[in-house]
Amino acid sequence: xxxxxxxxxxxxxxxxxxxxxxxxxxxxxxxxxxxxxxxxxxxxxxxxxxxxxxxxxxxxxxxxxxxxxxxxxxxxxxxxxxxxxxxxxxxxxxxxxxxxxxxxxxxxxxxxxxxxxxxxxxxxxxxxxxxxxxxxxxxxxxxxxxxxxxxxxxxxxxxxxxxxx
Length: 165
Hints:
Helices cover 41% and strands 23% of the residues.
């Protein structure tokens, strides 16, 4: 058993608790022998700085497309071995992980996606959702502090911030 803090991209539902190490490993987790323990507040700072760096990293080489839907991003991808670094939007780990790309998925460049009206519209929405997900802590703090008095709803506040960047 392990004890820790779980936050699956929803600060309102995050919690401290116990989890089976075997269950984590069965679901694809691995032990990081190089991890150096830090305080919770230091871990939060590390994560926040990592997310900021991730958003500024524009080295996406392609987008994972499955059955007409953009499901993630790929970089350092080798089309012969189908191995590379991937990030799935539905399973967000705040960054890329090394992995094998299923042969039913396509890797399309941004240019290829922009030539398809349906995918181009989806990419625009996906880029916004990805930005929002990676900046949600800061957005929530700003909203709570002063923005809720100026905007009708959180979503319009987020969109205004996104399109200003």
